[in-house]
Amino acid sequence: MSRDTSVRPRRERRKEARPAELTAAALDLFVERGFAATRLEDIAARAGVSKGTLYLYFAGKEDLFKAVVREGIVPALTQAETLIAEHRGSASDLLRSLIRGWWQLIGSTPLGGITKLMIAEARNFPEIAQFYYDEVLRRARDVDTWQQLVFSPFIMFAVWRHSLACCDARAGAPEAYIEAALDFVLRGLRSDPGSLSISREPAAAPGRSPEG
Amino acid sequence: MSRDTSVRPRRERRKEARPAELTAAALDLFVERGFAATRLEDIAARAGVSKGTLYLYFAGKEDLFKAVVREGIVPALTQAETLIAEHRGSASDLLRSLIRGWWQLIGSTPLGGITKLMIAEARNFPEIAQFYYDEVLRRARDVDTWQQLVFSPFIMFAVWRHSLACCDARAGAPEAYIEAALDFVLRGLRSDPGSLSISREPAAAPGRSPEG
Amino acid sequence: MSRDTSVRPRRERRKEARPAELTAAALDLFVERGFAATRLEDIAARAGVSKGTLYLYFAGKEDLFKAVVREGIVPALTQAETLIAEHRGSASDLLRSLIRGWWQLIGSTPLGGITKLMIAEARNFPEIAQFYYDEVLRRARDVDTWQQLVFSPFIMFAVWRHSLACCDARAGAPEAYIEAALDFVLRGLRSDPGSLSISREPAAAPGRSPEG
Amino acid sequence: MSRDTSVRPRRERRKEARPAELTAAALDLFVERGFAATRLEDIAARAGVSKGTLYLYFAGKEDLFKAVVREGIVPALTQAETLIAEHRGSASDLLRSLIRGWWQLIGSTPLGGITKLMIAEARNFPEIAQFYYDEVLRRARDVDTWQQLVFSPFIMFAVWRHSLACCDARAGAPEAYIEAALDFVLRGLRSDPGSLSISREPAAAPGRSPEG
DNA sequence: TATGAATGAGTTTTCATTCAT
DNA sequence: GATGAATGAAAACTCATTCAT
């Protein structure tokens, strides 16, 4: 019951929310400035707490960074897996659903910045990069080169939004881009039946057109 | 002419080469670790000079960073412009030439890291990002959405090589990827005559197939 | 009388015992790590209370420290004075009784660490050091140089047990050491009649052998 | 040639002297306040340098501490060994020489504080304590209990000077104490022929009086 | 020019102390 | 009374920058 929560003392409610508030603040700043250039004090200020409070929840800057990446990735993975598992329909429909779902849950939210973050910090944090690689990228790359081609316009777009987009005066219509990119990618795949094998079902078997 | 240089006293030769040696060392480290996490002392050490020497050629860390980006971009631009200007043939041939040239001169060299660097530092260095955007990206984006789609596999690939590639055990054959990506992209463009307008000549006018 | 206490509600009993539980925990940790290196949180944890509770009984870290020293010293002094006052017999018997009593009540208990604590912190807490000096050391030193000589083996031993003893693999038999030291010291005093004047009575007058 | 040194640039001369200047300053403050309560900035100030300079010579506070102990102990050991090796005469003469030499080189100098430092910090720095124990104390303790008894008046005295002595208004005449203690100790040993075995020569064999 | 010792401002981190619950 | 989340002053440590040599 929600009444239960509303009765809880404010302090306690805060204590539970704090880690998420802190990682949210940290995500924004890490994505914007990078790990080294972000001051812990700024993260704390953005989360509305003092410097010391941060250390009640995280062992240090690096630990906070890891939490940011982990928390940013895991929910996204769950979503994607649900989407794929529940999908009934053609492979190209699946791709469309996946990308659109990604845009809603990740691409258009602060989580979209994680990719930029990983790109920028991968070599400074090999373990985290490995984790990201294993959990997020490996499966896609397991299949074949085409996966990279298929996804790069979308990844590129997410990274762009968190870096050089600030130099681009034109507002841009993200959704329009996404749709155009989908068309483009599906056209690129069309004459290569069997190359679209995101779903691991026979649906994507050689000889079968991705359009189903 | 080159004999002239070889006869010069070593000191003098060194003096002229210094800035380039320093920016080369800085490029490597900035790309690997990012701006904030790179220590000037490490750059100096890699260039084989002392920390103080750096200040004889650059006003400070930020100045060095700007020099790295500028020196990394300008020659690439010159090359690309030459390639485009001298091109005689179909638009899709031009694209192939451009990408292959880019791979040779930029993608496969340390300069390929500049893109990652700009992605990571754009928001910390708005002026440099603007410079990069104006000189490198604007023209391509001036035309239409398709440009992004066309280039993202290649940009993505370059960025990849300087970040998460370290987690990828498989060696990978860069050239094979480039060629596959070219085919993919050209196929994506095929049914949209007129959308390929990289060269600013009538060659890319609507109604004309990229294949010529 | 003691039944009275055992009937009291647990809370209340706790309340009265708290200060002693806290100083006991503090004594252990101050002796082990020194004042500055001991965290209030660790003391609280060892006493089984929260950090805040400490402030209900002591004004702060320094106040707690003073209480530890005071509580550690006063009972010992009372004991020693009782022993001396009640003593009937030779001066050397008194010394034996004193040292053996000290070992039972102080040397072999956590209170033995107080000496080490005072040695380590005297210059950081001049007032407490002065208090310790006035109450514990002055009288002994009032007489003459011999006092120091007589007591140093025992003081040394107590200090040792709380510092470098941890490096000594050999278990050691404390009581044997104490007895050997007593013999040694009494022998050192023997040819110097009158030098043993711990008790402030004429018993220790010149010309009288400590053996009586 | 001393002229050689005098010609050296001031900077360089300084660089060589710095570590010793810093450990000297650190010794004073560590002995006075203990490790945890001593601020690195105070050490630097006492040595006449800035905080950062300290880190050019020592990896951190703990490293500096180790250097202080090591540098304080090693020369003392060398001296003691030379004294023992060169000694010709009775065992009790050797003891007198040793103690007097110790007083001159250690006891009366800042190095005398090392013992207090080790007593206070042994449990916080087990490795250093072990080093101190192995190098300084083991040999003496290897023989028998008597060693502790023999040396405790002197050790105690050194410790005293660096802790509670500040509470003692009376100036005190150190040398007089040392001499009195020597007499006392030798008397304590006298009736136990053979127990004085500091020198490892037959001179100290059982049955032979320490007086030779 | 070139060096590298020295600096000190800036950042992370710790922990005694407070106070709302 | 008791708690423990929150605070912020203080201390360790880093590193861009300066400057005497």
Q: Approximately what portion of the residues of chain A adopt beta-strand conformation?
A: under 5%
Overall spatial form of chain A: elongated
Please bin the fraction of helical residues of chain A.
over 70%
Q: Gap between N and C termini of chain A, in Å?
A: 46 Å
Q: Give the oligomeric state.
A: homotetramer
- The average pLDDT of chain A is 79
Count of individual beta strands of chain A: 0
For the largest beta-sheet of chain A, the strand count, sense and barrel status come to: none
Largest interchain contact: A-B, 51 and 50 residues
How much is the radius of gyration of chain A in Å? 20 Å
What sequence of helices (H) and strands (E) makes up the elements of chain A? HHHHHHHHHH
Structural class of chain A: mainly alpha
Instruction: List segments of chain A where confidence is low: pLDDT < 50 over at least 5 consecutive residues.
Output: 1-6, 193-212
What is the number of helical segments of chain A per DSSP (H or I, 4+ residues)?
10
Question: How would you characterize the overall build of this protein?
Answer:
Four copies of one chain form a homotetramer. Chain A starts with a helix and ends in a 22-residue tail after the last helix. Chain A contains ten helices and no strands. Helices cover 70% and strands 0% of the residues of chain A. Chain A is elongated and about 55 Å long. The first copy, chain A, has helices at 2-7, 10-33, 40-47, 51-57, 61-86, 91-107, 113-121, 126-143, 145-161, 174-190. Chain A is mainly alpha-helical. The longest helix of chain A has 26 residues, at 61-86. Chains A and B meet through helix 7, helix 8, helix 9 and helix 10 of A and helix 7, helix 8, helix 9 and helix 10 of B. Chain D binds a DNA duplex (21 and 21 nucleotides) through helix 2 and helix 4.
